[in-house]
Structures are given as structure tokens and as C-alpha cells.
């Protein structure tokens, strides 16, 4: 018997992550031309996303490349994490919680070193699903097909039995190339309807006020 499975992205799906403008504010504060922070930090951001640098080294590199004292580095990183973590998409999270036991559940996320601990503390994603696959732990980012293969292997499910939900079109295309079904996330209603269709039957979606 085929085991149905749903695998979710985090940012833009389980988390609502609007841009906060924190980088621009730091550039203004430090009197740097627009784009300077990401230009100087690009390789560090990349390294953090695939786990080839420690969180402590990230802090050291921020200090060295932007000329910040350690108290400023702490504030800088707090601003980074505030945008990264956003706020919970509570309606969808509540719906996923109601799916437990009816199908296999997983998360596949492009991430940054330190994300697991913070998201577990804030949102308990490690309790919401059976497996959370982070790029900073595997060293593989979506849309690399190996990321999708790792997620399916960890859940012991066949790709064709999985529905992957993400808000990035390139990742949806890659999931389909890996043999999975996929849904481009636009809003909760459409995502929940697609999950219900995938499962054939399922809990009715909880109805809440639309997200602001």
C-alpha cells in the first residue's frame, strides 16, 4: 500500500516572512552604499546556508567585514533572525497538526546555520512533522534534486506518493523532476484544497480570519 506524504517548505509557507528592511537600515546607520552588506557578506551567507561555517564564525565575520563591535554584531544578527523567522502561518500549522497520523509529514527547507534551534523553540516544527531536512545540515540546497531525494528517503516514502509545497517556482519544478507531485504556495485555501485532493480525504480545514 502506498503511503501518502506531504512535505512543506518553511519560509513563505509555514512562516510568513515579509521583508523588514533591516539590511538597508544597517547600511544607512553605517553610511554604506546600498548593497554593500550583502556584497561583503555574500560568501558567508552562502556558507551558512550549507553548513560549511559555524554560527560563531558567522558572528566573527560580521564583525570583521562590517567593522562592528560585539554588541553591534548581536543586534545585527537579531535583526537578521527577526526577518528570517517571521511569524507563524498559524492557520496552515493548525491544519498540518490535524493531519498527523493520516499521512507522513516532513519539512524540506533551505536554511541557515542556527535555524533548527530557533525554529524548534519558536514554532516546534520538530514536533509538527516526522522529519525536518535543513540545507545547512545536509549541505544540499533546493532546487538540487538530491535535496528532494533525501527528504523522501528519510521518510521512507516513494517520490510519487509525496506532495511538496513551496513558494518558489524553481523548487516546484525540481520536485516534479524528482518524481514528486508539487504545489506552488499562494495562499492557505488553495494549499489545503490541494492537500485534500492529494490525500483523497482528510480533515476539513479550520476556518480563521485571513492572515494580515
From TrEMBL:
The keyword Transferase does not apply. One of its GO terms (molecular function) is hydrolase activity. Coiled coil: none annotated. Keywords: Hydrolase. Gene3D superfamilies: HAD superfamily/HAD-like, Putative phosphatase, domain 2. InterPro entries: HAD-like_sf, HAD-SF_hydro_IA, HAD_sf, PGP-like_dom2. It comes from the Bacteria. This is HAD-IA family hydrolase. It comes from Streptomyces ehimensis.
Amino acid at each position: 500500500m502506498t503511503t501518502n506524504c506531504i512535505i512543506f517548505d518553511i519560509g513563505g509557507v509555514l512562516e510568513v516572512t515579509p521583508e523588514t528592511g533591516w539590511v538597508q537600515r544597517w547600511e544607512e546607520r553605517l553610511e554604506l552604499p546600498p548593497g554593500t552588506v550583502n556584497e561583503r557578506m555574500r560568501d558567508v551567507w552562502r556558507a551558512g546556508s550549507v553548513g560549511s561555517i559555524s554560527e560563531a564564525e558567522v558572528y566573527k565575520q560580521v564583525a570583521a567585514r562590517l567593522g562592528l563591535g560585539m554588541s553591534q554584531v548581536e543586534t545585527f544578527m537579531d535583526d537578521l533572525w527577526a526577518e528570517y523567522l517571521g511569524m507563524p502561518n498559524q492557520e496552515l500549522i493548525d491544519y498540518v497538526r490535524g493531519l498527523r497520523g493520516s499521512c507522513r509529514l516532513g519539512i524540506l527547507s533551505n536554511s541557515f546555520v542556527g535555524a533548527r534551534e530557533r525554529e524548534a523553540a519558536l514554532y516546534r516544527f520538530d514536533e509538527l512533522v516526522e522529519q525536518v531536512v535543513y540545507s545547512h545540515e545536509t549541505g544540499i540546497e533546493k532546487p538540487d534534486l538530491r535535496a528532494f531525494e533525501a527528504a523522501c528517503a528519510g521518510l521512507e516514502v516513494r517520490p510519487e506518493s509525496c506532495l511538496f509545497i513551496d513558494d518558489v517556482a524553481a523548487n516546484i519544478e525540481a520536485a516534479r523532476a524528482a518524481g514528486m507531485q508539487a504545489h506552488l504556495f499562494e495562499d492557505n485555501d488553495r494549499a489545503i484544497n490541494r492537500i485534500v485532493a492529494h490525500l483523497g480525504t482528510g480533515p476539513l480545514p479550520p476556518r480563521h480570519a485571513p492572515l494580515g
